[in-house]
Design goal:
38% strand, 16 strands, 8-stranded mixed beta sheet, single chain, mainly beta, 5-stranded antiparallel beta sheet
Length: 287
């Protein structure tokens, strides 16, 4: 068998050295937050060519509130399978942080955000410490109280959540240039109707005869109670005091020989509707 000549061996060796140099150059740069992991040749791997992103949502509940009510802000991260985010544990520098930068019509009702489930506690040899991890879906919540004096149509909370999402041997920092994490949540405010007090009246005086002259009956006409509110029942009362030596006829007898039964007519009212027919009203003192 014929052996390869030395020049050809030298060319092959040089080519291998060039490939290795390319490997060193491609792997020497530190990965920046949000970068796509590279293989040894500096080319994005097929699995990570399109970065896997979480889903973020923020809501304020309930759907409507009144001044003085409590509204709860929920910040939700849906974490893809095979990945995790760190908890908000202040002892860990890579923790998740929720920053509230805008509040309209609200004031905090508690100190901070609480997760809806406990994180998994593990020891990380690379970090030489215990860390807390969340997988799947995690919701952080914080309660706020609607200001008593707030008169706007809606309350609002806005801010940003900062976190690392790790998995498949990589960690990515959020937000990054391709994935902002700002959030805004609002809920409508139902303003309480102002308390209305109906001003009822009391009127009294001497009844007049058909001729216009003062008669012999003193009348006191009143609506009670005097401080009724919308929806409450008020009662109309007509009190007659007949002078000594005179009398009136009841409402329940017909006109007899010129005697005319007492009647109430031409009633006009504002803001009221009758609950009983006039004939159902019985006198306090029977004739």
């Amino acid at each position: 068998m014929r052996r390869p000549s030395p020049p050809r061996l030298m060319l092959l060796t040089s080519a291998l050295v060039g490939v290795c140099a390319l490997c060193v150059v491609a792997t020497s740069r530190a990965q920046e937050p949000g970068d796509v992991p590279l293989n040894l040749l500096g080319v994005p791997t097929g699995e990570e060519a399109a970065p896997v992103n979480p889903a973020i949502k923020a809501t304020l509940t309930p759907a409507s509130v009144k001044p003085g009510d409590v509204a709860t802000l929920h910040v939700v991260i849906d974490i893809p399978a095979g990945y995790y985010v760190y908890s908000t544990d202040p002892a860990f520098g890579g923790r998740t942080e929720i920053e509230v930068s805008k509040i309209v019509g609200l004031k905090p009702a508690e100190a901070g955000f609480q997760p809806d489930k406990l994180p998994q506690v593990v020891f990380e040899p690379e970090l030489k410490q215990q860390v807390e991890k969340h997988t799947g879906r995690v919701t952080w919540s914080r309660r706020y109280r609607v200001e008593e004096s707030f008169a706007g149509p809606a309350v609002q909370v806005g801010g940003k959540i900062t976190f690392q999402m790790c998995g498949n041997g990589t960690c990515r920092l959020f937000p990054n240039s391709g994935f902002p994490t700002d959030f805004t949540a609002s809920t409508s405010v139902v303003q309480a109707a102002p308390e209305v007090t109906a001003r009822t009246f009391v009127q009294q005086g001497r009844a007049k005869l058909a001729t216009g002259q003062p008669g012999h009956v003193d009348l006191r006409i009143a609506l009670s109670p005097t401080d009724a509110k919308p929806g409450e029942i008020v009662t109309l009362s007509i009190e007659a005091t007949v002078a000594e030596g005179f009398h009136t006829y009841s409402m329940f007898e017909g006109d007899i020989l010129g005697a005319k039964a007492t009647s109430v007519f031409d009633l006009a009212s504002t803001g009221l509707k009758p609950l009983a027919a006039m004939l159902d009203l019985a006198p306090r003192n029977l004739p």
